[in-house]
Amino acid sequence: MADKKNVRLECTECKHINYLTRRNPKSTPEKLEQNKFCKFCRKVTVHKETKAK
Predict the structure, then answer these.
(1) I want to staple 49 with a disulfide (CB 3.0 to 4.6 A). Which of 2, 17, 27, 32 is the partner?
(2) How many other CB atoms are there within 10 angstroms of residue 23's CB atom?
(3) What is d(CA 12, CA 1) in angstroms, rounded to the nearest whole number?
(4) How far apart are alpha carbons 53 and 48 in whole angstroms?
(5) Is the pLDDT of residue 36 over 80?
């Protein structure tokens, strides 16, 4: 079985946590960074990985 890690994606502009996703830390050791829609900014922004609880 793959070791998946839960991660939270935070908007870089307004700092709201908008998305929850999973990633495999063995295949992608660097932090996740994706372009996603932020409902608070009302536009597509870069979302970066933050600590998961």
Answers:
(1) 32
(2) 16
(3) 33
(4) 16
(5) yes
Give this prediction's pTM: 0.83
- Please tell me the distance from the alpha carbon of residue 38 to that of residue 34, in angstroms, as a whole number: 12
CA pair distance 34, 47, nearest whole angstrom: 5
Please enumerate in sequence order all residues whose Cβ is within 8 A of that of 13, keeping only pairs 6 or more positions apart, or say none.
Answer: 38, 41, 45
Q: Six-digit token pair at 41? A: 């900014």
Element (H, E) at 10: strand 5-11
The tokens 């996740």 sit on which residue? Answer: 32
Q: Mind listing the pLDDT tens digit for each residue in 14-30?
A: 999 999 999 998 998 99
